[in-house]
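User: Predict the complex.
Assistant: Input components as received:
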Amino acid sequence: MSIATVVSVFNGEHSVGSQVTVRGWVRTRRDSKAGISFLAVYDGSCFNPIQGVVPNNLNNYQDEILKLTAGCSVEMTGEVVESQGKGQTFELQVTEVKVVGWVDDPDTYPMAAKRHSIEHLRELAHLRPRTNIIGAVMRVRNCLSQAIHRFYHERGFLWASTPLITASDCEGAGEMFRVSTLDMQNLPMTDKGEVDYDKDFFGKEAFLTVSGQLNAETYACALSKVYTFGPTFRAENSNTSRHLAEFWMVEPEVAFADLDDVAGLAEDMLKYAFNAALTECREDLEFFAQRVEKTAIERLEAFVSSDFAQVDYTDAIQILKNCGKKFEFDVEWGIDMSSEHERFLAEEHFKAPVVVKNYPKDIKAFYMRLNDDGKTVAAMDVLAPGIGEIIGGAQREERLEVLDMRLEEMGLEKEDYWWYRDLRRYGTVPHSGFGLGFERLVSYVTGVSNIRDVIPFPRAPRSANF
Amino acid sequence: MSIATVVSVFNGEHSVGSQVTVRGWVRTRRDSKAGISFLAVYDGSCFNPIQGVVPNNLNNYQDEILKLTAGCSVEMTGEVVESQGKGQTFELQVTEVKVVGWVDDPDTYPMAAKRHSIEHLRELAHLRPRTNIIGAVMRVRNCLSQAIHRFYHERGFLWASTPLITASDCEGAGEMFRVSTLDMQNLPMTDKGEVDYDKDFFGKEAFLTVSGQLNAETYACALSKVYTFGPTFRAENSNTSRHLAEFWMVEPEVAFADLDDVAGLAEDMLKYAFNAALTECREDLEFFAQRVEKTAIERLEAFVSSDFAQVDYTDAIQILKNCGKKFEFDVEWGIDMSSEHERFLAEEHFKAPVVVKNYPKDIKAFYMRLNDDGKTVAAMDVLAPGIGEIIGGAQREERLEVLDMRLEEMGLEKEDYWWYRDLRRYGTVPHSGFGLGFERLVSYVTGVSNIRDVIPFPRAPRSANF
């Protein structure tokens, strides 16, 4: 008798006739009139539970087995037999069921085997991984993260963990969370009546980072190819389905690479990750296609087999102006495109993922490389059908004098960027990178539209429970 | 002509006689009297730079090549030839050197090709990845992180990202960083004169997590095998070589597993990771053995080929009392062993990695499973020769009534742990896990003794630069 995961039984890793013990939780129990019970037991190793056929001559049949309910934990031992049911390869002819943990008051068990609204599940973040949907999300999330690490590793990138706590709001991007150990009830003050951050843990004001990019650049300018995969924070007070206060980002940064190089890298990475999901999480994706988003599988398959379109921002604006469609927000050269524009381009015009390149410098960050026209920068957004922007990137300004000019234009202090400027003073190289919001990727692959449902414990305004 | 990484040339991926372009930074330049220059160029893809043999008939030989200094970025094109030098397989017979970026005032370039103290390099965290030592650390760090992800993936674990921001100090472990968006200069107060956290971003006090364990347990109790790999925080005001305010932790959590199961998992994981480093980062480890820690390679090889010893805490105390050695801190049953005790056990007594098990309950956390003796809990520490404690873990208390008793004993409120207790109310299972401080692992493998030097941008008291 050996311990077996459910997936290993389904995959035929235990020969028919052998005895195995599966350990997990009861999804459902069904009793036939003939005095046989059917237990569906899951353990998280795959989407489907395994069926145990339990004869009524087991010792604890009356006292225990007939009392099993959804959520009870069991060790179920039996002989592997070919399944008569459709869709399943193998099941267990059960010889022993050991009850490990009961469910307190099954009538009020929050995860009883019925369908719950996904909003309701969010309130029960500690139990929702027991549901089909969150279990499937987690397997896909894991698959995508493993694929991303593998992708970069195979291509010779080094994972570089950039710091979460930062004392400089270098990017100036939006609201940041303050990190402090000062006694709030009793703040130390300077002579001038200001909070005395010199007394704080880091000896100055500190915040949670909004991006690892500037730090990653220092490593790319030494080791050529690096990527980050870590948490990032935004203190924006926005309660949308696409925003979290804490989320995971993937940020590759490549020396000697221009914008087209990293556009190609983005295309390769997305296709690699989607192929992994299509191959390794088929059952989970089938569930999403059935219950959440009909096109879940087709749109991934279309994505991996399509060539990305490429269009200049300036041309994209012309397309939008001439398309005859009425948009909520007016289209003019210089605007920051909104979601309706982006989705029109990807879904209706190009009918493919699109890389929009060379945006007006005034709507982009100081570190993006100025193009020869003096008006645009070498920035890109990757727009995906069905979701809009999924990746944002740029070639970085590697010329010290241009960088300084841009800092000045934007009213930023050169001194604050001394170490960033050093990279341009000492052996500067063209380099480029992009950022991928990992939860948006998981959301896209699963079709689960609110990103609070694709991260284990979502953080949002007024919401940091568990 | 094709673009090549340095490692790909060394590995013979480009046939002798073919033309390749290598892109990177000059480590050294040496000019022979015969009118030939030798450029050593690195790109981070491996430890050694590649040698380019540059004839003096190149167009820019006088004007540029003879002015190249350490840190200049170049694109060097040439024919792959077998190297005459020892230790190197191939070099380039150079036909073109394009200078991409010069070094401003080479005499003051902080990373000029001389040896710097590792403390000095810490002040230059943005440039130190250009040094041999930090480059090697980063390749080993990357190798270990990839190996850890691979290890768990191969064994069917799911990566679960637990939250960084938490509103509950569940573990009560040490000082935490507060996360807030309140205007410190103008704090909102309640009628009672207390800071009004209801006005804060999350509507209550929030902190940076000290461990993902309790959250990971909720996922293990649904999906069986999970692990975290993410940042963790300690606001301890300690300036030691083994502490950081921000560091990365690996925390597996396994359902239906007891303490011995995860002791075995810890052994397998460490050996897997060390084998990866020995195989994939040989040159880097040779450098560490030469320059940092003589036994760097031997001790890893000894580690992977040794069986872990196992000893009960109670027996370990007897060993320490009877060993005849004088310790700084007295040995009595009930003490929290200090580093000298741990290292004696691993280095002198067992001469192998040791798992110490079943610690007195009074020195361990509430969630560790109470043993039948009523005095000890199923906790373990893994001690490694040369470093001491590297892993801490435990079987978790899965029995609700015992958990409640322990909470009460420790003066903790049951209500604060409602969701943690729910796991014991609904299909509870025996489960176990451990935590590995990732930087301590990198420090152990490289021999670089201060963990500030094995993380890209260390955070410590009064130190959050870059």
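Chain B has a mean pLDDT of 95.
Let me know if you want any component modeled separately.
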